[in-house]
Amino acid sequence: MNSVEIYHEKQIRELCALHALNNLFQSRDAFTKTELDFICHSLSPDHWINPHKSFLGLGNYDINVIMKALQARGYDAIWFDKRKDPTCLNLQNISGYILNVPTDYKISFVTLPLRRRHWITIRQINGIFYNLDSKLDSPQVIGDGVDLLNYLKDELDCKDKELFLVVTNEVEKEQSWLQDQGNYCTTTSLDRDAEEVQLKDITNTDLKPFTCKMSDESNHYIT
């Protein structure tokens, strides 16, 4: 497939969450900064400085905003437990993937000592999976389903990266994003925290609790 046919929104300021959503839905009109700012306000209407975005108004939206935006379109974001093997995923029932990764904060050519997070969309287009990172010059081909699973394994080996599965409400309800709900395989990596996975770098600790579906059969939640 020619990359010209793929919508790939490029990075502006700290609007990677907006770009990730628009790249996911393959449309520049899927979401706007105004809509995401409105979601921020609706989540914390009584805060003078909104905790869900940059106080400078440049973006830097957190997972709460992404989840709320997806819900408005009939989708859910499911946090994927990195202790699990990605081969347990039913790729046919997953609409897209959003990675959260650490990134440097730069002003011009100067890198500042600030920790920032970056949102990246991965989705299938005409049978091929693409990395639609807004910081890339063009969409990056990942390949077929096997290539995607290997790619996700490599990415999730980094403890600072998190993966969210984007699925329809129906798929979330039926848990049909799993190959086999009764045989949810786990990884054996000792580098991953076996007790708790914290999203403190993705969410603000002073936020109102949000519900994020965890990818295990016990239906626990992260707040």
Automatic annotation (TrEMBL):
SMART domains: Josephin. The keyword Protease applies. Pfam families: Josephin. Residues 3-181 form the Josephin domain. Its EC number is 3.4.19.12. It comes from the Eukaryota. The active site is at residues 16, 118, 133. Keywords: Hydrolase, Protease, Ubl conjugation pathway. InterPro entries: JOSD1/2, Josephin. PROSITE patterns: JOSEPHIN. It catalyses: Thiol-dependent hydrolysis of ester, thioester, amide, peptide and isopeptide bonds formed by the C-terminal Gly of ubiquitin (a 76-residue protein attached to proteins as an intracellular targeting signal). This is ubiquitinyl hydrolase 1. It comes from Molorchus minor.
